[in-house]
Amino acid sequence: MLDRLVASECAGQYWKTWRRYEEHLVYENKHLGKKKNFMNWSSGTNFHSLSSQRNVQHSSGHITCLGSLKWAFNELKLLKIQLRPFDISFKKPKEMKMELLLGDIHSNLRLRGVYNPTSFQTPLVKRSNGELVTINRRVYSIRNANVLMSNIFTNSKTPPHLLVKAPLPPYIWGEWTSVRCEIRPMGLYLTRLFYFYSEDSTWIGEHKFYSDPFCTIPKFVVTAAGFFQTIGPSYQLGGSYDIDFHIEKASMTILDQRMTQDFHLPGVCGLDEWEVNVPKELSSTNGCLPLGIILPSVQMDIMKIEMSFKGALLLYLGQTDTDNMPDIAKNERPTAFQLPLVKCGEISTYSQELRDILYDDLDLNTGNIEKVHLVLMILSLVLVMR
């Protein structure tokens, strides 16, 4: 399959049959000069050896077949190195883990080659055991919290054999929250909190956005609610399930005074003017298009439940659209996951307040809109207090 893909999309090249563990030239730029180490992407092993050039015929100054392989190295356009503490102990030197964050990859395959990252992927952790690093005259000991066998990455041509976790059933009900401060494009950070009720398959979720990577400076909160339906096992991702989220109601609360000026668009995201710490119902304007919220709508998603090595239940939901403008007409599901949510505990089988919102057919053009505001405000306050 890989042979046919590259041969069809990389016209003018001659390919011998692809075999496992053989090297093939898929990118070369002769305008960069004779830099022999240019293709030395992996430690100690050349991705392309000079003797393999005879396998490819080309007459131009360079060849590139990365597009047909759906490879995008734009993630190297943005990077960040950070230290994160293991605990709050006062050991000297203080033990830290060092993380490398690379730029995010666009969720749309066709846009990956031209996308300039504005966010980060899940961080990589440096393999180290006691390396000392000095920053601002303070000494830190770099350690790796991951427990890996010492010989797991000995050969770059032999992928590591990891244990496959047993798939768990899609018992999604309960309370789930973010395990860490998450990253979104355009310099936004957030934490997520979800409640799923088993009796009537309703859900309510809170996305609280921040302007700093520590999730300490809040900007706004979006609270949404509706119904969910588990469709069945995913045919693309083993151990996963297709799930549909019906979004019926949503509200937004601005927590930063400067954002009230940015959203000074009456009739676009709810009625009336924005006020700090005052939830505004969004159903009256069919959502908030600048934030990618469409009401009512159905979000076709995927989900997977796993258990961590510490025994905690983890919930993975599908990767969000990079541009935050999902095209509902595509009827496509994500093929990758976000960071997991951890289960905090069990909840009641239903929420009477949520039933009042979803089942009561309110006339939004009458005085009942105050009732919607009141109920959404109560739900928002409950989520924030928890």
Automatic annotation (TrEMBL):
<feature type="domain" description="APCDD1">
    <location>
        <begin position="151"/>
        <end position="355"/>
    </location>
</feature>
<keyword id="KW-0325">Glycoprotein</keyword>
<protein>
    <recommendedName>
        <fullName>APCDD1 domain-containing protein</fullName>
    </recommendedName>
</protein>
<dbReference type="GO" id="GO:0016020">
    <property type="term" value="C:membrane"/>
</dbReference>
<dbReference type="Pfam" id="PF14921">
    <property type="entry name" value="APCDDC"/>
</dbReference>
<keyword id="KW-0812">Transmembrane</keyword>
<dbReference type="InterPro" id="IPR029405">
    <property type="entry name" value="APCDD1_dom"/>
</dbReference>
<keyword id="KW-0732">Signal</keyword>
<dbReference type="InterPro" id="IPR042425">
    <property type="entry name" value="APCDD1"/>
</dbReference>
<keyword id="KW-0472">Membrane</keyword>
